[in-house]
Amino acid sequence: MSRLLAALLGALLFWSFDRGLTNCDPAHQHVPQFHNLHPAVQDAQERPPTPLWESNFNGVRFEQYNPAEHVKDDKCSLQPGQSRPQRIPKVVHFIFGLAENFGSSPFNFVHYMAVLSAHQRIRPEAIYMHHIFQPTGYWWEHAKHMVTLVKARDASQLYGHKLQHVAHQADILRLEALYKWGGIYMDIDTLSIVPFDALLHHDFIIGEEGDGEYGLGNSVMAAAPGSKFAERWLSAYAAFRTSEWAEHSIFIPRRLAIEHPDELCVLPPYAFSYPLAWTAEGQQALFTPVANQDISGVLVKTPALNGTMYNALYVGQYALHLAEHGSWKYLADYDYQYVREHQTITRMQLLMEDILKDLPPVPRDPDYDRRYEPIPGLPKPSSWTEQGSKLLTEEELKEQVKAADKQQLEEIRPDDLPERVQQLIKILIERLP
């Protein structure tokens, strides 16, 4: 596949597929042996899973969900003054660079903020950056002193299944690392808000994501080495189906969690992923200017286990997944100057400013004005819409996708594309052998 095609698919479809994780032992070259496929996997394939959130939230629709009214939904966190033996190592795992073009998104300010906030708030013993292609660039130079680079293994095959997309490879690699070494996994576009100390006594931690249409979000997880739930989840990949995009990353773990609740603790959505930054509602909450620019009360105080208070959007919030692939049209403008000096204040600015407040000024990236074009020649990420697709002629679009094989084209999620591009790919699929 040509570089230009890879850029188109990476930018149009999976803007942040470069997230995920690999195993954190450089010498580890083999997939661990796991139990046979659990019956819950077959069950999840045959009928829609029952959403966990119905029991936790008493039937409240996600759009109406108010974290302030549901702080008691958190059954996982220790309260200040409580203590339990720690089972999860206090290390953080990120992944970046599974693809040579970095998923069309070179290491940027958002990724820097993910590393910085983890370093500041979690205060881990180590931050591992798992990669195949080493990060480069302006913001990597500012972040690299905080991380330990670890070479990732090739995860393109598992249980005889070919994992073509780096997103699916990353789904496997993050679970392998948590199973073998334990720790906290975060997508590289996640802000750490509060230390995780109140959660480290569990065997496996994960958060709900979205309403009944979604399941458990694998963008932020934590596990003890040898976690039974991580092992069970990995074994489910014996029945992996490339055609089902989120089946094994979101729906299968939810089904397994329902059947084996003693193997993990599930946090409410506001712990890691509320508001959903890739939805219109979430973007309005995070990126719309605060009314009358009155910032008092926008952030609330939420306690860590040691009693220290941190600024957050909600009480009980630990992190916030920014879903870079869906919110880049807003995030592209963000850097140190934008956060600290921009006159219009948003909730996202306030969260980032709270992390940056004690740092000396960071000069603007000399390539800041090119931030909308991670791959030269592509239209702005903020224009992945019907209107934006018109920036390319029909011939240019054909040229960019003609090298793809039929299976790759059929795996594209149609809802992620402008209608014009959907029609073109449908025609190409029909023409390919």
UniProtKB/TrEMBL annotation:
Pfam families, sorted: Gly_transf_sug
SUPFAM superfamilies: Nucleotide-diphospho-sugar transferases (SSF53448)
Gene3D superfamilies: 3.90.550.20
Signal peptide from the UniProt entry: 1-20
Keywords: Signal
Superkingdom of this protein's organism: Eukaryota
Region (Disordered): 362-389
The keyword Signal appears for this protein: yes
Basic and acidic residues composition bias: residue spans: 364-373
PANTHER family with a match to the protein in the record: ALPHA-1,4-N-ACETYLGLUCOSAMINYLTRANSFERASE, TRANSFERASE, PUTATIVE-RELATED
Name of this chain's protein: Glycosyltransferase
